[in-house]
Amino acid sequence: MSASSADPASTPIGEGQDLENAVTRVEQELGRLFARIRVGWREAAVTVHPDLQPLGYQVLISIASGKATSAGAIIERLQTDKSGVSRQVRQLEELGLVESMPDPEDRRARVLVATDLAQERIAIARERYEGRIGERLRSWSAADLDHFVELLGALGR
């Protein structure tokens, strides 16, 4: 961060407005990107199963990756409500995409596991999604991609 961006009093008059315009453009582009990501999740969900909702896809991905294998962990990871996760898990079980198994470390608890069918369909959905985004990203230079990763990381902190 430069001295001029850290101290508004030292920012030249024109630069302050340019900065505000740039922030507005970033917010608009992030909005477009998030909308596109939501469309991608919807398309991926339908690829896995025509009745699957985008939240159900996110729940399934969390389970399949092993990053969240209990309802509580899914709620925490996705920052969503218990009833929504419960409905999605129930649907995933009904569709044969998830099974509830005894936790090997605590027999009183249950863990959620993605079925082989789920893994196959997730792979197809990811291949399609990554094909679309990969096509766009591969048109950038490695240096631009590295810089983009740095900027995204800074924004996410």
Automatic annotation (TrEMBL):
PROSITE patterns: HTH_MARR_2 (PS50995). One of its GO terms (molecular function) is DNA-binding transcription factor activity. One of its GO terms (biological process) is response to stress. Residues 23-157 form the HTH marR-type domain. InterPro entries: HTH_MarR-typ, MarR/SlyA-like, WH-like_DNA-bd_sf, WH_DNA-bd_sf. Pfam families: MarR_2. PANTHER family: MARR-FAMILY TRANSCRIPTIONAL REGULATOR, TRANSCRIPTIONAL REGULATOR, MARR FAMILY. This is Transcriptional regulator. It comes from Microbacterium aerolatum. The lineage of its organism: Bacteria, Bacillati, Actinomycetota, Actinomycetes, Micrococcales.
